[in-house]
Amino acid sequence: MKNSTGLPAEGTPADNLLDLLPGLKQRDAKWDAGKVFGFVYHPGNNRALIAEDYFKEFMYQSTLNPTAFPSLREFEKDIVNMALELMHGNRKMAGSVTTGGTESIFLSLKVARDMAFEKTPHIRTPEIIVPETIHPAFLKASSILGLMPVIVPVGEDKRADPVSIEKRITANTIMLCASAPCYPYGVVDPIPELGRIATDHKLLFHVDACMGGFMLPFMEELAYDVPRFDFRVPGVTSISLDAHKYGYAPKGLSIILYRSRIFRKKQFFVYTDWPGGIFASTTFMGTKSGGPLAGCWALMKHLGREGYIELADRVMKTTINIRDGISRHKSLEIISNPDMSVLAFRSLKGDTFNIGDALAEKGWHLDRLQFPDALHLTITHMNSGMEYAFLDDLACIIGEQQSLDRDFKDMNRTVSAVKRISSLLPVEFVNTIASWIGKMTARSGGSRQAALYGINAQLENRSRARDFVLNLIDGMY
What we know:
This protein is α/β, with parallel strands linked by helices.
């Protein structure tokens, strides 16, 4: 697509705009071919139709005023009640629909902060304790809300370490946080042990089940060994779960649940002295389209427990096939022991990102992890049936050792050169280079990332690493 030159003087006919669609999507990841791991959660074309119909019917209605569109209010109440049932809640509990996991997490931290200021006004900088594998949304929300995140290393199994977490509790601590599962490695933190600690120290405890909230309950019904993580665990005071992930709802639709309605009221904002009338909003966002809300409600009703169990079964069978296939290669290692359909693997030869780039050239879209370097898979319904093609391509790439060795050497030369440049040249010059790399990455589609992650890992000054990425992203846009 060419750079925009501003709003056109005359409107473009609808047929002409529709003709542009194939070209506009040409460089996008081909998720409908089953070669993208994560990002898009799709229940299948036939099942998606009901959500799309409801989405279109309500897309222009706003959730801001609950009296103007009571249908949207009923959708939200129903979605929250269905989510509470999944999390083994009861009628005394409550929740809200949000635009995504980040907003759900933001609200849980806002509630914790406001309750802390009421009960313990001496606290100037409230602290939340999080394992290092927690989603960065917690850190993002903390920076906005004036909270201090205390980041604690995880154990060798990549799960939160209850002993280390309890040692970090101080008079300023207001909340413990954990994942079910964590995004990097797909492992569920020891929620029962952390719940006991939260109860003993009279702290709030948030479980981020954005990844697992619509997967783990159905895995449990399929007799998989699922760790306890929901409201059955004493001490858990709030849970976030994304319906637009394994709930297969339209984006963006997440849910925040609380053990008590008292907590939920703390997230509301009310202003009664505005000339424009009484203003009230239940979540961080004000106006939101009713489309995602209606689409989510329709899909959850359409799938039902039986439909979700069927999807979970298919996803887990695909996951097991992929795990078994990766494990057959002595040069590869799956990190820890994932509890569901999210996993990471690495090459023991140090060329993990080069393998990722080679897979990208064959059309596969995987995420990259760091500390340690790893490739990340979020396996969804769309990947079902494509696992053997993926494993065949992976085996082929590993077998091409000469090509991998050459790419690995080229990457190391690039990383070494940038490291020398960053230590010798002014920050402004390095930032300009980063912006240029961002532009080139955007034009190329970003398939090759080995050198980028190598550069980030080698920049010893982490502030400069952050600036490098900031300018790279700025350049991409």
